[in-house]
Amino acid sequence: MVVSLVAGALWAMLPAYVPNNVAVLAGGGRPIDGGRTVDGRRLLGDGKTWRGTAAGTVAGVALAMGLDAVRPGAAAALGATLPSFPLRAAVGLALGAMLGDIGASFVKRRLDRERGAAVPGLDQLDFVVGALALAALLAPSWTLSTFSPARLAVILVATPLLHVTTNVGAYLLGLKSEPW
Ligand code: CTP
Ligand code: MG
Ligand code: K
Questions:
Q1: How far is the CA of 78 from the centre of ligand 3 (A)?
Q2: Which ligand is nearest to the CA of 47?
Q3: 108 CB near ligand 1 (under 6 Å)
Q4: Residue 46 lies in a domain
Q5: Structural domain of 41
Q6: Coiled-coil ranges per the record (predicted)?
Q7: Which has the closest alpha carbon to 10: 173, 116, 165, 159?
């Protein structure tokens, strides 16, 4: 029961968790804002690049397809009900996660926070909001039936913990310049 709930919730969000981490590995090159500033502050900053965004999105969608392929076996092994990912849902989760993170950078620059500055709360949940919003837009009925209130509750608690853990790990491995 609990295993099924937690496994189903995390499985549903995996295509949204992976894009940010892949962007860290693949990032670099031309920033999305092309260096543009508004009132002396960068629109998004050098931390949001075309390459990172594209790689993260593609990785999230590819992961969703991989999860679909192994779902029957994983569901049986875990004794859990696991969601499958129609393409629209996969794109919504992966691209939405990237857009949520980009939106947060826009907000951070308006608040005068430099690239890399930590904004607790926003940093851990920006991509969750983006992923759920774009999934709801592209695959409304899938999103409604997949993200039950119980799964959403698990996601809201588990995501910040996972986010903090992976970022500290990436920092310790030298992959990221700040531990958040
Ligand atoms: N990254 C990227 N493109 C994105 C998101 C991330 O290239 N759309 C890469 C960048 O190299 C970035 C790193 O991943 O520096 C870490 O991502 P993140 O912590 O989101 O960016 P920050 O550099 O901290 O910038 P910001 O303050 O704007 O969040
Ligand atoms: Mg950061
Ligand atoms: K971020």
A1: 32
A2: 1
A3: yes
A4: yes
A5: 2-172
A6: none
A7: 159
ipTM higher than 0.90?
yes
Alpha-carbon distance 149 to 159, whole Å? 15
pLDDT tier for residue 107 given thresholds of 50, 70 and 90: very high
pLDDT at 95: 98
Q: Is residue 179 part of a domain?
A: no
Letter for the amino acid at 121? Answer: G
Q: What is the pLDDT of residue 1?
A: 83
Number of domains, the chain: 1
Ligand nearest to the backbone CA of 19: 1
Distances (CA, A) of 94 to 3, 75, 106, 134: 24, 22, 19, 9
- Inside any domain, residue 114: yes
Indicate the helix (H) or strand (E) that contains 29: none
d(CA 143, CA 33): 31
Token pair for 167: 């970022």
In a domain, 33, yes or no: yes
Closest atom, ligand 1, to C-alpha of 116: 24
Which residue has the CA at smallest separation from atom 24 of ligand 1? 116
